Amino acid sequence: MSTQRQGRDWSTLVLDIYVVVFFVYLFAPLLVMSLAAFNAYEYPSVTQWRGWTLQWFGELARDDRILQGVVNSLIVALGVILVALPLGLSGAFILTRLRGRYNNLLYAILVSPLLIPGIVLGISTLIFWGRVDVPGGLFLTVMAQGSFIAAYSMLLFMARLQRQDRGLEEAALDLGASSFFMFRRITVPFLMPTILTAAVIAFLQSIENYNTTVFAIGGDWTLVTEIGSRFRFGLSPVINVIGVIFVVFTVIAASVYVLQKERERKRKLAR
Amino acid sequence: MHELLRSYGRTLTGVFITLTAFWMLIMILLPQAFMIEHSLWWIDRDDQLGMRIDRAYSDMGLLEFDLGQADTPEGKADIQERIDGLKADIAAMEAEETAPPKHYGFDNYTKMSALHFEIFLKSIGYSLAVTILALIVCYPIAFTIAKLSTPNKAALLMLGLIVPYAINELLRVYAWLMILDYQGVINSLLAWLGLVSFEDKSWVPFLEYSGSVFVALIYAYVLFMIFPIYNTVETLDRNQLEASEDLGAGVIRTHLRVVIPHAKPGIAVGCIMTFMLSVGSYSVPQIMTRGKSGDWFSQLIYRQFFESQNWNSGAAYSFSLVLVCLGFILIMMKVFKVGIRDIAK
Questions:
Q1: Whole-angstrom distance, CA of residue B236 vs CA of residue B263
Q2: Is the dihedral of CA A67, A72, A77, A79 positive or negative?
Q3: First and final C-alpha spacing in chain B
Q4: Which residues 89-128 on chain A approach chain B with CB closer than 8 angstroms?
Q5: Nearest chain B residue to A21, by CA
Q6: Chain B residue whose CA is closest to A125
Q7: Where, by residue number, does the polypeptide cross the bilayer (chain A) (predicted)?
Q8: Of B17, B162, B279, Cβ closest to residue A117
Q9: Torsion sign over Cα A105, A111, A115, A120
Q10: Based on the domain organization, do B119 and B82 belong to the same domain?
């Protein structure tokens, strides 16, 4: 018994060390990237240290292409939310409420954009709309991103709808509510938390997206495609500043999210 | 259909069906179909055509001159006939020049050059390696967080995973560019140790090796392996682990017989996502190679579209990628015996 316990201690220790090493691996590169944002050397570097500076933050604020990129990213993200949520919700209703022979096939088609490479989504959208003479741009980006982000929202809505107590809807209808009234007063409120989650996820997915966007964006640009093109021309610590901003935002948002979950869990335990 | 109609009425049901149909047709199926169609034809441009048209015009000039010089009616008729023939030829050639003939066939696939095919295989090979390595690295992490940690510690560790996961892929890869650059972190370390020197440029050119793309691919997509595995392992009842231990199974046996069978869908999803993202990644090779080392398949595709303007072969390359991913998904479904519903959750 004691040898077994000892063996377990050993393996726990090894695992703990492993986890620590893994997290160092995850975070050290981000630290390197962030640090270079404060280096007064014009090529991004942490090894050629020329002293601390905030000049690159100022330069970012004067960089019109990047600022316009942020605006374009926001436009696209808003478009994607408006497109993906209704599509995802409709797909979820049909898949959860209709039990037919083709249910699995429909499901496979609708989730397929999640399973094929992002560049292919961009390319197929570009070719398809090219036939009706719509060139690459913000609209095509919304279409290309929407095809897979809608699938994400659909999966979220399906999970929620499967937990729904259909009795409430039935009761409302039996009591004479019109189906539209019932939908507005029972179904939508029930789905509201998921609608918000889906909107946040759609927003983040859209802002982040590069591989699909780079094919569909045409002559326009988003923040991320602009960053991508800077790797070819004009790499400067301004990109690192964007990195720092991303890191700070993400840490704050993720902390809030985890704390929220933690509080929910404790509340459930207390009950 | 009846159930939908009864609950939501005609209008809402109609809206649901219309929107789903729009999504399915306009955003998924038709774009794919058009891409496939595009990959099945090519335009045959004859490089010599312009020159041949020029020569025909100069021949005609000569003939017209001859026509003026000819003195017998038979000679005139003969020359006139040749001029008419030449005119018809020119018209045909000019028609071909403005609307070159379109051929259907599999040439866009079969005519992939040896170099491109090699790159295709290289990208697949590296992506498989990324997938396997990510699985080996991630499984212990996912298991530790899901089953061996206290809830508070697990929450903290999850936070530690979400943060890098949520940061833009480009920026994460960029971090590795800085580490592996000529005067990057590793080379500076080596210089400090006296192994290389910046003065005579004897640094290790990591960025010129395909290995640097490999390293960055793992870093970029490793987390797509952790979350699906974590989600399935988390639902495993702790009692099963204890039961397995009480029955005398060692750590490895417990994993092989209890945890892994339970986590199968998660492992399958993790592998599918990691492979698909790696093989289709444009961002990682673009940043890591910066034109210094050879192209990856995704970069070839990009070039077909935006540099050589050859959309037809670009579409063929792109569809080849779809087929590879489809094949990988089917193999995973077979190996792990999971259905499509288990995969996309």
A1: 8
A2: positive
A3: 24
A4: 89-91, 93-94, 97-98, 100, 104, 106-121, 123-128
A5: B141
A6: B31
A7: 12-38, 74-95, 107-130, 136-157, 188-207, 238-259
A8: B279
A9: positive
A10: no
Domain identity same for B24 and B55: no
Contact between chains at A27 and B160 (C-beta distance less than 8 A)? yes
* CATH code (residue B266): 1.10.3720.10
Q: Is the dihedral of CA A114, A120, A122, A128 positive or negative?
A: negative
Question: Does residue B34 lie in a domain region?
Answer: no
CB contacts, 8 Å: B174 with chain A: 33, 231, 239-240, 243
The answer to whether position B33 is within a domain reads no
The tokens for A220 are: 């326009």
Contacts of B245 (CB under 8 A, 6+ apart): B254
The string of DSSP codes covering B210-278 is HHHHHHHHHHHHTHHHHHHHHHHHHTS-HHHHHHHHHTT--HHHHIIIIIHHHHHHHHHHHHHHHHHHH
CA distances from A244 to A61, A238, B264 (A): 14, 10, 37
Instruction: Give rounded-to-5 percent helix, strand, coil for chain B.
Output: 80, 0, 20
Q: Indicate which of A18, A119, A155, A212 best probes the interface with B, i.e. most B CBs within 10 Å of its own CB.
A: A119
Measured in whole angstroms, how far is the alpha carbon of residue B304 from the centre of its chain? 13
Question: How many other CB atoms are found less than 10 A from the CB of residue B20?
Answer: 25
Are B72 and B23 found together in one domain?
Answer: no
d(CA A151, CA A85): 9
Q: Domains in chain B: how many in total? A: 3
CATH of A65-235 among 1.25.40.420, 3.65.10.10, 3.40.50.300, 1.10.3720.10: 1.10.3720.10
Secondary structure of residue B199 in the 3-state scheme: coil
Q: Which domain holds residue B291?
A: 113-343
Mark whether B326 and B250 lie in a shared domain.
yes
ipTM exceeds 0.95, yes or no: no
Residue B173 CA from chain centroid, whole number: 17
- B8–A179 C-beta distance less than 8 A: yes
Q: How many residues does chain B have?
A: 345
Please check whether residue B321 is in contact with residue A120, taking contact to mean a CB–CB distance below 8 angstroms. yes
Written as six digits, the tokens of A21 are: 């090493």
Q: What is the pLDDT along chain B (345 residues), one digit of tens a residue?
A: 677 887 888 889 999 999 999 999 999 999 999 999 999 998 877 778 888 888 888 888 888 888 888 778 888 888 888 888 888 888 888 888 888 888 888 888 888 888 899 999 999 999 999 999 999 999 999 999 988 888 888 888 888 898 888 888 999 999 999 999 888 889 888 988 888 888 887 888 888 888 889 999 999 999 899 999 999 998 888 888 888 888 888 888 888 888 999 999 999 999 999 999 999 999 999 999 876 667 899 999 999 999 888 899 999 999 999 999 999 999 999 999 888 777 765
Q: Which chain A residues in 240-259 lie under 8 Å from chain B, judged by CB atoms?
A: 240, 242-243, 246-247, 250-251, 253-255, 257-258
- Maximum pairwise Cα distance, chain B: 116
